Structure to design on (379 residues):
C-alpha cells in the first residue's frame, strides 16, 4: 500500500489537469471527478461481493493490475467523453481494492490490535500520500501532467509485484479460512442492517465535505491564490505527512481516553472550521497551512474510528459487504463533492462555498452526536 499510494498523484491533480492543461470548464471537471465517484461506488460493491466469494488476495491482484493499465491509458486521451469513461473504469477497478484490503487486514488481526492494525495500514497509505502529491507537483510543474499518469501506473504494478512475491497466497487463504464458519447463510446481510445504514449516510456526508480537498481546493489555490503546481503538491503532501507522523500515537491515546462517539462528532466540527480558515484575507499561505493542519486532525479523529466501528459490526462472513458499504459511502461522496462543490464555486464563488461547507459540517456534527447518543449499541 505504501508503494501503491506513493504514486497516488492523479486524482489530487486531475481537476487541475483538466481545467489548465485541457481547457475544461469547472463544471466539466466536476463531472469527470463525479465519474470517478460513480466508478468508486460500483467498484466498492463489486470488491465486497468478490472478496466474500473469492477471497481478498485475488481481488487485490486483479485490482492493482487493472488500475495500473487504465491509468496509463489516460496519457493518450484528450476528449471529455474518453476521459470520463477512462476515469470511471479506473475507479471501478481500483476501488475493488479497498474492501478487499480492509478484509485482509482484519483476517491478520484480532480484537486486541485491530484498531492499531488499521492505523498502521493508514500510516502506509498516508505516508505514500505525502510522497505522491508532492512528487506529482514537482513532476507536473517541471515535466508536464502526463508523466504523473505513468508514475501512478508504475506504482500499481510495483505494488502488485510485492504482493505476489512476498505475501504467499497460501498464507492468506489459511488466515481467511480459520475465521470463517460454515454457517454463513444464517448471517444477516449488511444491506438490511438499518442502524449501520444510517451510519453510512453520515459517513457519506463527512466524505462529501472532506473530498473538496481533492477537487475544489487545488483549483481554488491555483485560481484564487495563484499557487503554482509545486506549492499545491507540497500542501497536499503535507496532509499525508502529518497523518503519517501523528495518527498512530494520537489514535492510541484517544482510544484509551475517549470513545468513538465523542471523537467522530468532534472531527466533523474541525472539518468545517478548516474550510472557514481559507477565508482569512491577505494570508493565503498561512491560511492554507492552517487548513491542512485542521483537516488532517479531523481525518485522524474520524476515519480510523469509523473504519473500526464498521469492521467490528460485521460478522466474519459479511466483512466484505460491510467494507463495501463503507467504501460506497466515500464513492458517493466522490460524486457529490466535485459535482456540487465545483458547480457551486463556479456560480457563486469559493467563499460562499466554504460557508456552505461549514454549515453542513455543523449539521453533521450534531447528527453524529445524536446518532451515538440515541443508540448506545454504537459504543
Amino acid at each position: 500500500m505504501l508503494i501503491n499510494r506513493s504514486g497516488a498523484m492523479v486524482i489530487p491533480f486531475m481537476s487541475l489537469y483538466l481545467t489548465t492543461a485541457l481547457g475544461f470548464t469547472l463544471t466539466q471537471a466536476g463531472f469527470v471527478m463525479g465519474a470517478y465517484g460513480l466508478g468508486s461506488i460500483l467498484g466498492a460493491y463489486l470488491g465486497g461481493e468478490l472478496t466474500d466469494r473469492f477471497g481478498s488476495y485475488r481481488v487485490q491482484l486483479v485490482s492493482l493490475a487493472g488500475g495500473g493499465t487504465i491509468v496509463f491509458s489516460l496519457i493518450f486521451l484528450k476528449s471529455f467523453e474518453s476521459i470520463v469513461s477512462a476515469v470511471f473504469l479506473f475507479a471501478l477497478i481500483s476501488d475493488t481494492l479497498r474492501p478487499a484490503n480492509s478484509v485482509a487486514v482484519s483476517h491478520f488481526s484480532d480484537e486486541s490490535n485491530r484498531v492499531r492494525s488499521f492505523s498502521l495500514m493508514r500510516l502506509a497509505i498516508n505516508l505514500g500520500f505525502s510522497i505522491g502529491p508532492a512528487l506529482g507537483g514537482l513532476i507536473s510543474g517541471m515535466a508536464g501532467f502526463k508523466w504523473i499518469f505513468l508514475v501512478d501506473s508504475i506504482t500499481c504494478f510495483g505494488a502488485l509485484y510485492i504482493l505476489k512475491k512476498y505475501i504467499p497466497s497460501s498464507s492468506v487463504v489459511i488466515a481467511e479460512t480459520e475465521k470463517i464458519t460454515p454457517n454463513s447463510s444464517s448471517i444477516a446481510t449488511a444491506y438490511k442492517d438499518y442502524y449501520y445504514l444510517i451510519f453510512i449516510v453520515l459517513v457519506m456526508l463527512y466524505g462529501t465535505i472532506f473530498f473538496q480537498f481533492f477537487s475544489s481546493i487545488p483549483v481554488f489555490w491555483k485560481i484564487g491564490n495563484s499557487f503554482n503546481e509545486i506549492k499545491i503538491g507540497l500542501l497536499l503532501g503535507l496532509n499525508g505527512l502529518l497523518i503519517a507522523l501523528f495518527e498512530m500515537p494520537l489514535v492510541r491515546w484517544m482510544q484509551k481516553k475517549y470513545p468513538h462517539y465523542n471523537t467522530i462528532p468532534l472531527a466533523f466540527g474541525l472539518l468545517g472550521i478548516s474550510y472557514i480558515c481559507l477565508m482569512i484575507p491577505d494570508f493565503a499561505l498561512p491560511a492554507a497551512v492552517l487548513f491542512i493542519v485542521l483537516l488532517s486532525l479531523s481525518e485522524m479523529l474520524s476515519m480510523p474510528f469509523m473504519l473500526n466501528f464498521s469492521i467490528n459490526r460485521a460478522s466474519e462472513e459479511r466483512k466484505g459487504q460491510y467494507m463495501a458499504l463503507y467504501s460506497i459511502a466515500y464513492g458517493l461522496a466522490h460524486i457529490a463533492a466535485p459535482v456540487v462543490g465545483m458547480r457551486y464555486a463556479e456560480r457563486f464563488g469559493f467563499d460562499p462555498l466554504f460557508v456552505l461547507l461549514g454549515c453542513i459540517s455543523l449539521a453533521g456534527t450534531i447528527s453524529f452526536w445524536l446518532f451515538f447518543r440515541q443508540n448506545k449499541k454504537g459504543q
Observations:
- The two ends are 30 Å apart (CA to CA).
- Confidence is low (pLDDT under 50) at residues 181-186.
- The chain has one domain: 2-378.
- The domain at 2-378 is CATH 1.20.1250.20 (Growth Hormone; Chain: A;).
